[in-house]
Amino acid sequence: MDAKGTLSGLPWWIKWIAIPVIALVVFGGLIASVVGFLIGVLFKILLFVALVGGVIYLVRRFTSASSSSRGDW
Question: Where along the chain do its domains lie?
């Protein structure tokens, strides 16, 4: 007996409400931890990109300012 044969005799609300709710109850913690991990990784990547961009901006700004003021010494 295949899965379609097993589920074919059941009411629609069992297939579309009860089974997904049971899956969420059983695997909800796992799903939440995976989603939380992915959001954390994305946040860390964005933070890394912002910090590297800020450092590059500051280095370029100070090196161009120091090179333009070298003649004043």
Answer: 12-67
